[in-house]
Design brief:
Mean pLDDT: 89
Order of helices and strands: HHHHHHHHHHHHHHHHHHHH
Number of strands: 0
Shape: globular
Radius of gyration: 23 Å
């Protein structure tokens, strides 16, 4: 069930909200159970046959967590329990997401017939990583014992379940437990509707609107210079507004229930370095890779060579997390190399004089954006050979064919670039702060007007937009 579909907007979401606030009068446990059950219904629309797998994963990880939190186990036994939990999660993820990839590569190498087609459960990457973080924190003694309904809701919470963000227990479960969470708050509902409407606009009009230009580079015919750049840039902004729109819609939905989700997107194309880009793009995945992979590998504590290796391993695995294909490996490898170069530049190159700061920052911004566009070609391409063909066209200005179609596409892309680079993002417009649990703080005078009028306007706005088309979010594939 898509956030941008009429059944979700006009049937599922209102029914779940009304039930949540009605049952919330009985207490937080009842409200959490209702929301967890509604999340399972939501998940079933994407693949009902995988609901038992999700339930088994929740039960397994909750049991492992209980052993690590509630039982006083010997250090050696605690390590075994943790390894069992994390290993179980990785095994399930590996079987469903990567078994076919490895089998296909074995077939290609040894001319065998191991290749198999295993259907990928929706959202398995997100709920697996969410629970791995929970188990590691439980092992480190950073987790209190949570009641089963709250843990089940933490994992299955439908605004994040399909495409993130990757949740952290300390951000979410205390909110589920807080007295008064399941009581309707007109301010939060109104702000949630507005944020949802902004996200709907990004997805339906911006991301879906530019999609036809992507085929200029990634279509069946080899592109020329102009087509390659237009297609690559079109995909760059399609992915930007598609993912940004999803993040806004998830935050808006959650706000209606009185729950603040962590930010997952913060204008990454405004970054002037790859390091800054990864602080802004898919922020919860970046934090997970840093805290549960890069730092445990040694981080930057063992010299430059070890840090370089740790960065490369982390980013290659981060690429594989997105999908079982060599194109994602290449994308992760490229970003790992970018980060290594960025760190080397910060360490060895002199600080620019103040009079050169502005042109230096502009050059850094342009170089960062170009590097990101090049990497997105691998992210989007069907194969490494297709990606290399597109990149070859992008550096071959001799093959230029610039017609009205290309000029129109370039003008549209220019408008998208202005929006991404110059417009305030949603959290800036709405004053959203998930750390302080505040939203709409800068809109006090406006929000004091009759909330029903604005709520009705927001519902009408995103409802009409949602009727236009129901295309899937790009990150649903991961």
């Amino acid at each position: 069930m898509l956030f941008n579909s009429t059944p979700f907007i006009f049937l599922f979401l209102p029914a779940v909200l009304l039930g949540y606030f009605a049952i919330g009068r009985l207490g937080n446990h009842a409200a959490a159970l209702w929301l967890a059950l509604a999340s399972l219904v939501f998940y079933a629309f994407g693949g009902w046959q995988f609901v038992p797998l999700l339930l088994a994963s929740i039960a397994f990880n909750y049991a492992i967590g209980w052993l690590l939190i509630a039982r006083k186990l010997r250090p050696g036994l605690r390590s075994i329990v943790l390894a069992t939990g994390v290993g179980g999660d990785l095994l399930i993820l590996g079987v469903f997401k990567y078994a076919g990839f490895f089998a296909a590569n074995l077939d290609a190498l040894f001319s065998t017939s191991f290749a198999t087609n295993i259907l990928l459960p929706v959202g398995i990457s997100f709920y697996s990583f969410t629970q791995i973080a929970f188990l590691v924190d439980a092992y480190r003694g950073k987790v209190a014992h949570y009641a089963a309904p709250y843990y089940a809701l933490f994992v299955s919470y439908f605004p994040h379940l399909i495409a993130g963000p990757i949740l952290h227990h300390k951000d979410m479960i205390p909110q589920f437990e807080r007295d008064g969470t399941a009581r309707p708050d007109a301010h939060l509902i109104l702000c949630g509707l507005m944020i949802f409407a902004i996200g709907m606009f990004k997805k339906t009009w911006l991301a879906d609107g530019i999609q036809p230009f992507v085929a200029l580079a990634f279509g069946p015919a080899p592109p020329n210079f102009a087509e390659a750049w237009i297609g690559a840039l079109a995909y760059t902004f399609q992915l930007y507004f598609d993912f940004s729109g999803y993040c806004d819609m998830a935050i808006g939905i959650s706000l209606m229930f009185g729950i603040f989700l962590p930010l997952n997107f913060d204008s990454p194309y405004k970054a002037a370095s790859i390091i800054d880009f990864w602080r802004r793009w898919h922020m919860t995945l970046s934090q997970f890779l840093r805290d549960y992979l890069y730092i445990p590998l040694g981080g930057n504590r063992h010299g430059t060579a070890r840090r370089t290796l740790n960065l490369m391993v982390t980013m290659v695995l981060g690429g594989l997390w997105h999908g079982a294909a060599w194109t994602f490996v290449a994308w992760g490898t490229l970003h790992g190399a970018y980060l290594c170069i960025n760190h080397a530049w910060n360490r060895f190159c002199p600080i620019l004089a103040p009079r050169l700061a502005w042109p230096g920052n502009l050059a850094a911004f342009a170089l960062t954006f170009t590097a990101v566009v090049v990497a997105w070609v691998f992210f989007r391409a069907d194969s490494l050979s297709s990606a290399l063909l597109i990149l070859a066209a992008m550096v071959d200005p001799a093959r230029v064919a610039l017609g009205y179609r290309e000029m129109f596409a370039a003008a549209v892309i220019g408008l998208y670039a202005l929006l991404a680079w110059c417009a305030p993002n949603t959290q800036e417009i709405m004053g959203y702060d998930h750390h302080d649990r505040t939203v709409g703080a800068g809109l006090d005078q406006w929000l004091r007007r009759p909330a029903l009028i604005y709520a009705a306007g927001a519902v009408l706005g995103f409802g009409m937009l949602g009727i236009q088309q129901h295309s899937e979010f790009i990150y649903f594939r991961f």
